[in-house]
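RECORD TYPE: protein structure
NAME: N-acetylglucosamine kinase-like BadF-type ATPase
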Amino acid sequence: MSTPIVLAVDGGNSKTDVLVTDSEGQVLGSARGPGASPHSIGLAASVAAIERLVLAALAEAGLPDDRPFGRHCALYLAGLDLPEEETAYRNALVARNWADSVTVGNDAFALLRAGTSDGVGVAVVCGAGINCVGVGADGRVHRFPALGRISGDWGGGLFLGEEALWWAVRAEDGRGPGTALLAAVKAHFDVSSVVELVHRLHVGDLPHAVLHELCPVLFAVAALGDEVAQRVVDRLVDEVSVLATVSLRRLGMTGGEPVVVLGGGVLTAAADTVIAEIERRCRKVAPRAAVRVAALAPVVGAALAGLDAVGATPDAKRRLSVSGDQRLEQYK
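PREDICTED:
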C-alpha cells in the first residue's frame, strides 16, 4: 500500500479541498467540503472541520487513520492573514499530530505555487475578498494585512456585488446616473424593484452573502458598454494592478521576468480583456512580467509546496500537476 507523504489543504471562504499524495506525485485520496476559515468559524472549529475532510480523503484512499497521517502537511487557508494567526493554527495541527512536519500559510501562497514552477513571484487572489503575496528569489516575502477596508483594501466578490447594488439603487431613486445594472439586478433576483431587494436583505429574508452573485452580473453589464459598471471594473483592475506592482517593487523584481499569478473566483471568471489590462499595467512597472491566471487549482499548489518540502523529484511534481487536476474534475 502506498504511504501518504503529503496532506495538502486549500481553504477559501466557500470551499475547502484536501489532497493526499505519495512521494511519486500520485493522488491517493481527496475530499471537498465547505469553507472552514478560522476567521469565520474560529480556530478549533476550523481544525475539526478540516480534520474530518483529511480523514475522508484517507478513507477514500484505503489508508489507515493512524497518526501522524503523513510525512508533511501543507495547509493554506483564507483568514490566516497575520503571522500570529498562522503560528496559532500551526501549533494546533502539531498538537493533533497530523504530520511529522507542518507548513501553514494564507491561501494566496497556494495560488502562487500553483501558478509558478518554484513559488517565486507575486499572486493576487480575488474571491470573496482580495489579497496579494509575493516571494522573491532570495526568499523574502511581501504581503498585506488583507483585513478589508480597515487595512486599505478595495475589492472582492462580495464587495463588487455591493457596489453593483449601490449603483442600481441610486439609478432607481434618482440619486445617481442611469445604468443597465438596474435592470440586470432586478432580473437576477426576480424583483420588481431594487427597493424590494433591499427590504428583503434588511429583514433577513435573503442573506447578505447573496450579493456575491452580482459580481458576474457586474462584469456582464460592463462588457456591454455600460459606463457605470465599467468604472467599477476599471477600479478593480487598478486595485489588482497596484497590489501586484507594489509587491514587485518591494521585492526588487521589476527588472527581471517576474511571474504574476491571478486567481480566485472573480479573476478566473474575468474576461480576457480584463486580464490583458492588468498585464499592461503591471508591465509599466516590470516590462518583462508574465501575468497569468493560474491553470491549476490552489490545492494542487499546496500539494506541490508539500512535495517541495519533502524533496520530491521534478518528475513527481509534474505527475502531481496532472493527477491532482484530474482528481478535482469529479467536483465540478
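COMMENT: The domain at 6-115+296-331 is CATH 3.30.420.40 (Nucleotidyltransferase; domain 5).
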